User: Which sequence fits this backbone?
């Protein structure tokens, strides 16, 4: 598979390709912690990680944990898969019936990813369905048909794209209805000054291409992801004094967002008297399920939810794990979106309506 020629912003793409293909050769070479800030993954993810060959994990440049549990049988697309760490973790979770496709533009990264496949596959009694494609994430229609993907993941990549709108639009198009983009990336608390965007190291280290959080939310709305939900957020520390000086007062965060492809989502939360109950059936989430940073469903406990949340848990790949009572036939007015007790906090991450 070959990458289609990018016309706009090809210098940015070439610089990033050089950074991840020629300059960095392992995680240790990163100059900031932006690409490697993440909380400890769930034990089931850690177990899946044990099957990933070391030459892959040695070149991990992600900033979060963008792999949900309960994805058995799904078709997963990983944007900017690098050497394939998350592709291989997801492959362990989707099982025999699922499939994982990793996309990246950098030959050196893809070579490590592809070379690791035989060692990974021999640990299974079946042949895991894993593919790596060389492509620009701005041109997803060149590699995956529309409405074919259940789950799109990505770890610290979209900030590097010179055309983030094309990426999100392509993801929306590639997802099936009820599919989801679940991804971790770097964001900042203001629009980045142009001078910093032009700094090759700051850009390559996933800082100066970062989107201002509110602009990200606007972009989501524009392409059809009407109610982006933040799941978790962590501040990024700039430990290098020179980089901290350059960035001044700008604050950076690693945030995991959930974007559902559901045309029924509304820009503000509405109350239709719907009640959702989590069935406790997602592996690793027996007692509770966190939909986002302010919706934690305790197993078996009915919760009054807005129309958007009802559809997120009832009309997506999560649907088999929830019971949703009620529909949108009676409207009771606006839904009070105050965070619920028990949800984890993620102060800087502006979400959509809820
Ligand atoms: C920070 S690294 C993250 C790699 C991987 N997700 C991980 O967690 O280790 C960014 C990766 O995205 C790829 N990338 C950046 N921009 C891209 C683009 N526009 N199209 C395709 N790949 C891109 C780079 O080649 C690199 O492998």
Assistant:
């Amino acid at each position: 598979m070959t990458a289609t020629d990018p016309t706009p912003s090809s210098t940015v793409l070439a610089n990033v390709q050089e950074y991840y293909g020629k300059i960095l050769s392992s995680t240790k070479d990163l100059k900031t912690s932006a690409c490697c800030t993440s909380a400890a993954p769930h034990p089931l993810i850690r177990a899946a990680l044990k099957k990933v060959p070391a030459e892959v994990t040695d070149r991990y440049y992600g900033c979060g944990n963008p792999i949900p549990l309960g994805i058995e049988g799904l078709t997963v697309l990983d944007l900017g898969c690098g050497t394939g760490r998350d592709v291989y973790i997801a492959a362990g979770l989707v099982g025999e019936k699922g499939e994982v496709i990793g996309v990246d533009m950098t030959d050196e990264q893809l070579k490590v990813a592809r070379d690791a496949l035989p060692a990974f596959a021999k640990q299974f009694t079946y042949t895991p369905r894993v593919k790596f494609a060389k492509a620009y994430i701005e041109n997803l229609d060149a590699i995956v048909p529309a409405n074919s993907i259940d789950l799109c993941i990505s770890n610290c990549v979209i900030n590097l794209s010179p055309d983030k709108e094309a990426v999100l639009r392509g993801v929306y198009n590639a997802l099936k209805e009820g599919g989801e983009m679940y991804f971790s990336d770097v964001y900042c608390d203001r629009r980045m000054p142009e001078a910093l965007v032009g700094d090759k190291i700051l850009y390559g280290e996933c800082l100066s291409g970062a989107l201002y959080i509110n602009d990200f939310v606007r972009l989501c709305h524009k392409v059809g992801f009407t109610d982006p939900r933040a799941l978790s957020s962590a501040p990024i520390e700039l430990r290098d004094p020179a980089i901290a000086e350059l960035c001044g007062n700008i604050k950076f965060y690693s945030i995991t967002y959930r974007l559902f492809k559901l045309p029924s989502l509304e820009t503000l939360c509405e109350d239709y008297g719907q009640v959702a109950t989590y069935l406790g059936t997602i592996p690793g989430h027996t007692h509770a399920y966190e939909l986002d940073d302010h919706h934690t469903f305790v197993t078996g406990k009915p919760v009054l939810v807005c129309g958007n949340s009802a559809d997120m848990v009832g009309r997506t790949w999560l649907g088999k794990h929830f019971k949703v009572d009620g529909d949108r036939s009676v409207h009771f007015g606006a839904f009070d979106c105050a965070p619920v007790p028990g949800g984890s906090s993620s102060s800087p991450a502006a979400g959509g309506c809820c």
User: Anything to note?
Assistant: The pocket of S-adenosylmethionine is lined by residues 13, 16, 20, 35, 60-62, 80-82, 85-86, 104-106, 109, 136-138, 155-157, 160-161, 206 (CB under 6 Å). The radius of gyration is 20 Å. The domain at 265-340 is CATH 3.40.5.100 (Ribosomal Protein L9; domain 1).
